[in-house]
Design a protein that fits this description.
The chain is mainly α and 73 residues long. The chain contains three helices and no strands.
């Protein structure tokens, strides 16, 4: 699969996947977005299933931390 097809497919699937998540919190959305970006990055770096999974996990954690509410409750 060419890189252009991979990027197009990733953007299309992430757009479709996140469009149904309007009732998600900001932190949930950044976690999901980070996982998508991390998975794509992992796939581009190694091309294997393991790298894609690790990239998605790392991206999800980073997205979760970035989306945290800065205010203490």
């Amino acid at each position: 699969m060419s890189i252009a097809k991979l990027i197009f497919t990733s953007v299309l699937l992430s757009t479709l996947g996140l469009s149904g998540c309007s009732n998600m919190s900001h932190q949930d959305k950044t976690t999901a977005g980070g996982a998508v970006v991390g998975g794509v990055a992992g796939n581009l770096l190694c091309g294997g299933v393991l790298c894609t999974g690790v990239g998605a996990a790392v991206g999800g954690v980073i997205g979760h931390e970035v989306g945290k509410d800065k205010k203490k409750k």
